[in-house]
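Agenda item 2: fructose -6-phosphate complex prediction
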Amino acid sequence: MCGIVGYIGKANAASILISGLKRLEYRGYDSAGMALLDDERILITKSTGKVSNLSEKARTNWSPELFQRATTGIAHTRWATHGPPTEANAHPHLDQSGEIALVHNGIVENYRALRSRLEGKGHHFYSETDTEVLAHLIGDCDKGDLFQAVCDALHQVEGTFGIAVLSSREPDRIIAARRGSPIVIGVGDGEAIIASDASAILAHTQRVMYLDDNDIANVTMDSVEIRDLNNVPVTREIAELGLDASATEKGGFAHFMLKEIHEQPEALTNAIRGRLDLQLGSSVLAGMGTSQRELAELSRVVMVGCGTSLHAAMVGEYAFEDIADINAEVQQAAEFRYRNPILGNRDFVIAISQSGETADTLAAVKEANQKGAFVMSLVNVVGSTIARETGRGVYLHAGPEISVASTKAFTCQVSVLLMMALKLGRGRRYSREEGMKLAREIESIPELVARVIGKNDLIADIAEGYTKDEHAFYIGRGPMYPVALEGALKLKEISYIHAEGYHAAELKHGPIALLQEGTPVIAVACDVPGKDKTLGNIEECRARGARILGIITEGDDEAAEVMDEFISIPRTHPLVATIPAVVALQIFSYHVARLRGCEIDQPRNLAKSVTVE
Ligand code: F6R
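Presented output:
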């Protein structure tokens, strides 16, 4: 969603801010803005639409000399929440004096009350945003010490924030703070970069400090001093990012999504490496931070997540029940805390999130912690809020996922869930022989996925036949049911074709009424238990004129026969097969969207990490 970049140092701030914002574009946004400090004045340029619009406008508004000269500034990409994506609503926002500028991610929940109080004191607002209210509040608290003013203002804020604040009265520092919305500070040599996401920092330095909730940082070109909101110093270690800037570049692919689809064999190798014990038929997941004995005492697994991560959890549900012989359930993270879930210390709650920043998943983690459950996370972004909030967890090691549509995170999530189920299962009734067999199948996942990626051209040809459709149905059963849901989600989000996923048996309870001559039905009918019934459901669709594209197992002639066309995936364990099956659907969606001329990496209205509820 929104993105923050701030720079203080000796270099050209405007270029650094713009290239930082470009690296944050993948998060999704609809307007952008930048404030530079020059000659003890704050100068602001904003624009709707892309960062390139902002860049052009800044070059028109500001002289080349100013552009070159300013060495301190803050910038923002906004994903509209309070008020439409207009220039007036774009950040940075100024306080009443015009001498303090603020960029903000998150939501000030009590902004109405704060605004009317400030209006009562004579403040005037030009935007509809909660952020402008916070800028005024900081200005109102400023009695000559910006750091203290930010502390005092944040004490009055209910809600979430990641902020960077600049004052023309104190030009040698930027104040940054966080609560529930990430802030990372890159510590360079005579310079510092503040960002909401490490990808904006990568090109400058590998050395970063992550702020914790309620941390406030005084950032100068030579130092970073962090205190809590009561102005008490706290120590945050400098961490190494360990990421190459090329990880956030397209590397010759037309789109990040295509690159990330192709990266899957490598990402999966990284997710699996060192985590399988082929001799014991088990897995080694140190991040779970628990012994086999404690695992054996757990009575239930509850997985929470949103969107694609929720679909991975649904595959996990089958895995935990089938392999680990333990009750497993999936709960939509947004609903979790409102249903007052029944949880205790024998419940194992797994929060699944690529970004580690999804607001609903984070709230579910807090609720599970509150109720004393055994909580861990399955997250991709190292140091993200959910990873920090859970304390224990397993990272995916999938590398940065830039495309809004999640691909490699899903396949890595499912692989790690399979390994978790294996670890739990081996402490219960899963035999060594079964464990060894499954461990070998899991080990082969990168190779299975590479074989499906090898069918890219064939899948692209098939996709040509689906570019004119406006509706599509995806069906599957057993662990292939969440695969069908994920396939439908991928197609709708990037190609804007209305696609729905259903359990194969569910169609005839209503949705079959929509089938007409030629309606596409994408049937995930791999050779796993229940396939025969799915083939029966496919016949029902065919009888109503539907056009069937099957995802089937290689060599399954029986399945091939009922399909109009098909993509085959290698034969493997039924749960493992969900991974190559989904990869086939990712590639299919990608090509349909490409052929329809869609903006694949940043689909309309979507954001990469959804940090509002
Ligand atoms: C779809 C997609 C989203 C995310 C969802 C959760 O392609 O990417 O549905 O899966 O917003 O995000 P994370 O996994 O970051 O919590």
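Discussion summary: Residues 217 and 403 are 31 Å apart (CA to CA).
Owner for follow-up: CH.
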